[in-house]
Amino acid sequence: MVEFSADRLDAIFSALSDSTRRAMLARLSEESQTVTALAEPFDMSLAAASKHIRVLERAGLISRQVAGRVHTCSLDAHALRAADDWLRTYERFWSERLDALERALRKAEPRKRRKK
Q1: What separation in angstroms does the CA of 27 have from each of 11, 16, 20, 57, 72?
Q2: Which of 18, 46, 83, 113 has the highest local Cβ count within 10 Å?
Q3: Rounded to an integer, what is the distance from CA 21 to the centroid of its chain?
Q4: pTM score, two decimals?
């Protein structure tokens, strides 16, 4: 089983739990953006958008470059890899269970036909 840092996963999943932050990540997956451009489509103040951006930064999902007064955000997909790895352990678990169920149902199917 893969080892995961509980604090890191908590920060990642907490950041991903908000639809605004997920939308910001989706926009950053297309291209890096300034904080102002990233906040623009959302009905919130720049200060509120900055709070969302800080949550994404603390989770390691984005990085920020500062050039004077311009802050540019970029997606850092490495943190998503940790979340994906954690989720894949459960994907394997459920795949194995569903495969076993399918085998059991296929085995039981011929018995049903004989009874008719």
Answers
A1: 20, 14, 11, 15, 13
A2: 83
A3: 10
A4: 0.75
- Residue 85, both tokens: 């790895």
Structure token digits, residue 4? 């995961």
Name the β-bridge partners of 1: none
The angle subtended at Cα 88 by Cα 87 and Cα 92, nearest 5°, is 125
Q: Cα–Cα distance between 38 and 32 in angstroms, integer?
A: 9
What is the per-residue burial (b if ≥16 Cβ within 10 Å, else e) of 64-103? beeeeeebebebbeebbebbeeeeeeeeeeeeeeeeeeee
Q: Closest by alpha carbon to 26, among 73, 88, 87? A: 73
Over the stretch 57-72, which tens digit does the pLDDT of each residue have?
A: 999 999 999 999 999 9
Architecture of domain 6-115: Orthogonal Bundle (1.10)
